[in-house]
Amino acid sequence: MQDAQPIMLSVIIPMYREAARIEPTLRDVLATLSPRTESSEVVLVDDGSPDDTVETVRPYLKSRADGAVQRVTLVRLARNRGKGAAVRAGLAEARGRWRLMMDADNAARVCEVDKLLAQADGGTGIVAGSRSARGAEIDAKGFRRLTGLIFKTALLTLGLRLAKDTQCGFKLYRHDVAQAIAAHGVEDRFAFDLEHLLLAQRLGTRVEEVGIRWRHVDGGQINPVIDGLKMLGQAVRIRFRDYSGASIKPPDDRRSDAQIEVKPGEREAPARAGGAQG
Ligand SMILES: Nc1nc2c(ncn2[C@@H]2O[C@H](COP(=O)(O)OP(=O)(O)OP(=O)(O)O)[C@@H](O)[C@H]2O)c(=O)[nH]1
Ligand SMILES: [Mg+2]
Q1: How far apart are CA 10 and CA 8, in angstroms?
Q2: Which of 28, 167, 179, 212 is most open to solvent, judged by the fewest CB atoms within 10 Å of its CB?
């Protein structure tokens, strides 16, 4: 056991119906982070899962330090709102200087974060893990590559030049950019990555992209055709939305409506009215 320290790295994992996939991922994250020298935390966000996701992760929740991991917290959304809403809730709850969002299926392992941290300097707002940038090692299905290519082309047509791989579920946020995105982001469904990259640019910070090791994991819930079409509509909405009011606020100026503590190590977030459906 160690005394609580300032947290250097937060790892945020959005979960929707992940009872079957989250446990090995969580074990890998904890085994990787515990022996490290810098302090960390894990923030799990359950997006109103109807299955046993919450029961599966409950034994891992901790409000005291275990190795370098200072705490493992669960944020629960009262109803399913979408990955974007879940990531925002996690970014708001996290306390780390750098905040990593990663997928529950462990498609990119948490150890890849070192490649992102190596690019994280003072002017960087988001370091985006990438399946297209130099150094990427990917094991993906051909059809997913094709739908990804179509989506990329559509973004370029819209004038959204944000990153080579906007949709990779492995991104590192600087703390103040994370807080600004939690406060100003509104995109609840799968196109939220575009909004976050756009907001980081509008906030005057740089977006860096770093190739990572990524492998396709079966059992995913995203339908590349149906969700891809929905995401195109969301991308158009993001392109024309006015984000000019977004600003980075001093670290203590956090939103007060965010979470209600239900018991140590577990918090519950109320649903925010008016969220977009995917
Ligand atoms: N909050 C929330 N998270 C979701 C939802 N659907 C999927 N996720 C999470 O989003 C992450 C990625 O989802 P996956 O199901 O792995 O997506 P996939 O079909 O494998 O797609 P890729 O990973 O992009 O190849 C996981 O952490 C999921 O739990 C949802 O409706 N709400
Ligand atoms: Mg996946």
Answers
A1: 7
A2: 28
pLDDT in tens, 87-121: 999 999 999 999 999 999 999 999 999 999 999 98
Query: What is the C-alpha radius of gyration for the chain, rounded to an integer number of angstroms?
Result: 17
Atom of ligand 1 nearest to the CA of 77: 1
Could you tell me the distance, in angstroms and rounded to a whole number, from the CA of residue 30 to the centre of ligand 2?
20
* Phi, psi angles (nearest 5°) of residue 187: -85, 110
- 40-46/69-77 β-pairing: parallel
Overall pTM surpassing 0.85 (yes/no)? yes
Question: 9-269, what's its fold?
Answer: Spore Coat Polysaccharide Biosynthesis Protein SpsA; Chain A (3.90.550)
| Every domain of the chain and the residues it spans | 9-269
> What's the CA-to-centroid distance between 52 and ligand 1, angstroms?
16
Spatial separation of the C-alpha atoms in residues 242 and 59, rounded to whole Å? 43
